[in-house]
Amino acid sequence: MFVCTVVGQVWSTQKDATLEGLRLLVVRPYTRGGDASAETMVAVDPIGAGTGERVLVVTGRAARHAIGRGQDIGFQTAIVGIVDGMELENGERVGQVAAMDRPGAS
Amino acid sequence: MFVCTVVGQVWSTQKDATLEGLRLLVVRPYTRGGDASAETMVAVDPIGAGTGERVLVVTGRAARHAIGRGQDIGFQTAIVGIVDGMELENGERVGQVAAMDRPGAS
Amino acid sequence: MFVCTVVGQVWSTQKDATLEGLRLLVVRPYTRGGDASAETMVAVDPIGAGTGERVLVVTGRAARHAIGRGQDIGFQTAIVGIVDGMELENGERVGQVAAMDRPGAS
Amino acid sequence: MFVCTVVGQVWSTQKDATLEGLRLLVVRPYTRGGDASAETMVAVDPIGAGTGERVLVVTGRAARHAIGRGQDIGFQTAIVGIVDGMELENGERVGQVAAMDRPGAS
Amino acid sequence: MFVCTVVGQVWSTQKDATLEGLRLLVVRPYTRGGDASAETMVAVDPIGAGTGERVLVVTGRAARHAIGRGQDIGFQTAIVGIVDGMELENGERVGQVAAMDRPGAS
Predict the structure, then answer these.
(1) What b/e sequence results for E10-30 when a residue is b if at least 16 CB atoms lie within 10 Å of its CB, and e otherwise?
(2) Distance (Å, rounded) from C-alpha C8 to C-alpha A87?
(3) How far apart are CA A78 and CA A100, in angstroms?
(4) CB B23 within 8 A of CB B75
(5) Is D30 helix (H, G, I), strand (E, B) or coil?
(6) Chains E and C touch (3+ CB pairs under 8 A)
(7) Measured by CB atoms within 10 angstroms of the end CB, which terminus of chain E is less buried, N or C?
(8) What is the pLDDT of residues D46-92, one digit of tens each?
(9) Contact yes or no for D86 and B9 at CB 8 A
(10) Which segments of chain C does DSSP mark as H helices, in order?
């Protein structure tokens, strides 16, 4: 699982039938010090994340679970959470770290 | 799942029997700013993508699903969509972003 | 499996239901000579590791096992151990290498 | 799946019993412009590839299928084809691209 | 599967119960020309490899097979063989390449 930043969106008309109606976001893994990687992935978004938001991204079986269309689908990457806050040892803080005290947040 | 660009084709006569009749394309993952990675993969193409086209590429179980020959095959990478358009936070646009408004595109 | 260092924590309220109540730590893989990688991952922590501790991190099925919520969950990375000590050929020693002689340690 | 070049061979006497009698080749992934990666993998070769040949390499379930000893084996990488020819957008051609027109090649 | 060099050992007392009694080695993937990667992994060693030895390392299902504790374990990387010899196209030879002629070696 990775923290990624949503950096864009992709559209495709001619595609595997199991992808119909899914929102496809371009995400970029978070790297130390916010020095964004050049690497990108495409993740199905069942949650409704926006460009610039930090998200939790999984691949493989966990992603198929999150999409909720069974295991027999043409997809392997999904967003499973929107990051409220992140606190790092170097003092770097992202978002609302106060979210830490919010009931239900973990 | 990755956005890749089709950069070539591969032919093989002496191969695992489960690969007979499949089209094998060489693809290169999209990286930030279009600065193409040096890495390449080979993906089975059940859709009919052409050289230079942007495509959606999956691996593992999702790829076996897309190929439609069951799970017991000697293959693990497949093209599952052709990208109509991609819009990135840095203003970069690829292809027809108007595809966003087309019915059935997602 | 990787030795990683815990470098922070992430909070998310809006997330896949199977992630409720899990502690999400940001970890960074150990690289040669302690020259920390820029790459980070997010791992569920069922053990209670603290920032700065060295931990053992797994992904995929092994991670789902460690979390103990079955295989049908939106998660793929977990901490499975806290490193007592590590001894490397270059003479580098981390933590209590004497842990080597402790019963139950392996 | 990757196009790799066979760069050597490995021998092991003390090994998992499921590896007995398998040919273990060292392969290196093809990267853009033929600038060979420093990374290497070891792949079981059920086909009989020679040093310097370009081959198709898979990992995971696809590799276990190709080896033909069931899913319960201590192995995860295999050669599934020998590349006859490869044609890239930059005009680079490897091997017999005329193989494209050969019956049975795909 | 990778050729790796054993570069150290890790000890952990507080760990997933399925890891009890397993030997945990730090290994580093072999890269071209012996220019060792900075990346390291931790592999369970059911064979008894020593520091400085070249070994064959697998991950995922193959690793769980090699460990022999079933598929439901908190582990994903294992050593499946000790390398007797390796011969590369650049003339590089490691260990006893004569092992090639030894019965049972492959």
Answers:
(1) bbbbebbebbeebbbbbbbbb
(2) 5
(3) 24
(4) no
(5) coil
(6) yes
(7) C
(8) 999 999 999 999 999 999 999 888 888 898 999 999 999 999 987 87
(9) yes
(10) 61-67
Interface subset of D 73-102, CB within 8 angstroms of B: 78, 80-90, 92, 97, 99-100, 102
**For position A36, what pLDDT does the model report?**
61
What is the complex's ipTM, to 2 decimals? Answer: 0.83
Residues sharing a CB contact under 8 Å with residue A77, sequence separation 6 or more, in sequence order = A41, A42, A43, A44, A57, A58, A59, A63, B1
Kindly indicate whether the domain formed by A2-101 is annotated with CATH number 2.40.50.220. yes
Which residue has tokens 């020095």? Answer: A35
Task: List, run by run, the mean pLDDT of 10-residue segments along chain A (106 residues).
Answer: 94 94 94 72 95 94 90 91 91 64 45
One-letter amino acid at D74 equals: G
* Residue C90 in tokens: 């270059």
First to last CA, chain E: 15
The DSSP output letter for C66 is H
Q: Residue E89 is nearest to which of D12, D51, D61, comparing CB atoms? A: D51
